[in-house]
Design brief:
The structure holds 2 protein chains of 2 kinds. Chain A is α+β, with helices and mostly antiparallel strands. Helices cover 31% and strands 28% of the residues of chain A. Chain A has helices spanning 17-30, 35-55, 108-115, and strands spanning 5-11, 61-68, 72-79, 118-124, 127-135. In chain A, α1 packs antiparallel against α2 and α2 (35-55) runs antiparallel to α3. The mean pLDDT of chain A is 92. Chain B has a single domain (5-102), classed as STAS domain (Transcription Regulator spoIIAA), CATH 3.30.750.24. In chain B, strands 1-2-3-4-5 form a 5-stranded mixed sheet. Chain B is built from 4 helices and 5 strands. In chain B, α1 packs parallel to α2 (58-73). The longest helix of chain B is centred in the first third of the chain and has 16 residues, at 25-40. The chains are: A alpha+beta, B alpha/beta. The interface between A and B is medium-sized, with 29 and 26 residues.
Chain lengths: 138, 113
């Protein structure tokens, strides 16, 4: 039987990521995830959406697919931006940011990886797909 | 005043800022505007009551890192209380707790900041 999916298309408008988190909260309740798991998914989703918005052109959309599995929730955040080279993204450290000229931002990918059980990135000049997975803990 | 800032007050020479809503870039800038204005008047200690803020993003939190940096220049301090678990976890992941303090209550914060 085909697994249930939920699909969103978000315009590049400030705070549209909150629509994605509201959807994630409903799905998390449906899957009986804990409040902590739900909050971690929402936070990771916010960061993935913000990255997608920043990489995209204003007239693009960002697509979010929620795949409800028996033992996990898989979320794909898909943008049509310029793409990026994951190997060139360093893990941020606050020690390198405070009192230094380094910009204070750049935490999104690190937060996503810390909050989700697995994360995969596929990126090229046509866009980026971030696939994030949260396992159901019984 | 930005609607993100619910109130500001002062106690024990500490400025207490109560927030309400999403800590994004606008929320972060609203906090920093108050901090920088008060720092010009000589204030060096700030507390943020985040009871009304259940959702944050890294851009808003990065602005708090900028505030921490500015406070270091004047030997100031910043702390937080009433954090939702995910906000506390985010602050930990980003390392804010190495340079500022999360308190369990306003009373604890006023005594220990």
């Amino acid at each position: 039987m085909k697994k249930p999916t939920v699909e969103l298309r978000l315009p590049i408008i400030p705070n549209m990521e909150l629509i994605a988190t509201q959807t994630a909260e409903v799905i998390a309740r449906h899957m009986n995830l804990t409040e902590d798991q739900s909050a971690e998914i929402s936070m990771a989703l916010i960061e993935a959406c913000i990255n997608a918005f920043e990489h995209s052109k204003a007239d693009n959309n960002v697509f979010i697919n929620f795949l409800i599995e028996d033992d996990s929730l898989i979320i794909k955040v898909i943008d049509q931006g310029l793409g990026f080279d994951k190997t060139k993204v360093e893990i941020p450290k606050i020690e390198n940011k405070i009192g230094k000229d380094e910009r204070k931002r750049g935490w999104g990918l690190h937060l996503i990886q810390e909050l989700m059980d697995s994360v995969e990135f596929e990126s090229n000049s046509d866009g980026t797909t971030v696939t994030m997975k949260k396992n159901i803990k019984q | 005043m930005n609607t993100f800032i619910k109130s500001t007050k002062e106690a024990n020479q500490i400025v207490i800022i109560e927030t309400d809503g999403y800590l994004n870039n606008e929320g972060g800038e609203a906090i920093s505007a108050i901090c920088y204005e008060k720092m010009k008047l000589g204030q060096k200690k700030f507390l943020i009551n985040m009871a009304g803020t259940k959702v944050v993003n890294s851009i808003g939190v990065s602005i708090i890192i900028e505030i921490i940096e500015k406070l270091q220049e004047v030997t100031g301090k910043i702390g937080y209380y009433n954090l939702a678990p995910i906000v506390s976890k985010t602050f930990n992941i980003m390392g804010l707790t190495k340079y500022s303090t999360v308190f369990n209550s306003e009373e604890e914060a006023l005594s220990n900041l």
